[in-house]
Amino acid sequence: MFRSTLLAVPLTAALLSPAMAHTGVAEVGSFTSGVAHPLGGTDHILAMVAVGLWAVLAGGRALWIWPSTFVAMMLAGFAAASWGLPIPFVEPAISLSVVILGLFVALAMKAPLGLGAAIAGLFAFFHGHAHGVEATAASLTPYAIGFALATAGLHASGIGVGVLVEGCIGRAALRTIGGAQVLGGLALMAGLP
């Protein structure tokens, strides 16, 4: 387990970027920019992969319900922002999502199916709101489709990594990845590069 931690921490640090993903991207109205946005933000990658990893630890219907709920609620947050609904603390909630979801993986937290979906959905709303604030009114639909597909892909990646790591190395290694995600989230909150 210690060796896994030594490998996971530098990998997470290498993924960190000095800026949050919500600093105002120049072109955020196309399908392509919608796909690229979640893939270009460390906060998005860590949180969305964590949902997949946590779903693997939960097993059963959580494997598809938690990621599906995340995507649906992210689109709801996007719609709320597109309609001009101001939501406070969006960036802190996004950073906190990385830490908390990573912590759930690190501690192998058990949650009933509905509670896990509600937690994933709550954080997803904030992620979606950040996307909606950045989108241009002329092309909301292609942008939303792009980031929804990219998000689903990140969830699928988390599930794939989780199944592979748990099956080949063991649950402790999967939990170590969650610990690295917590560290990554704390680094993002601290503004570290």
Structure description:
With 193 residues, the protein is mostly helical. The protein has one domain. It has helices at 2-15, 31-40, 42-58, 62-82, 90-106, 113-134, 140-168, 171-190. Helix 7 packs across helix 8. It is globular and about 50 Å long.
Largest sheet: none
Q: Based on Cα principal axes, name the global outline.
A: globular
SS-derived structural category: mainly alpha
Separation of the first and last Cα atoms = 26 Å
Number of helices: 8
Helix content percent band:
over 70%
Q: Overall mean pLDDT score?
A: 85
Please provide the ordered H/E string of secondary-structure elements. HHHHHHHH
Spans where pLDDT lies below 50 across 5 or more residues: 1-26
Radius of gyration over all CA atoms, rounded: 16 Å
Q: How many domains, in number, for the residues? A: 1
How many β strands by DSSP?
0
- Proportion of strand residues: under 5%
Features:
193 residues, 8 helices, 78% helix
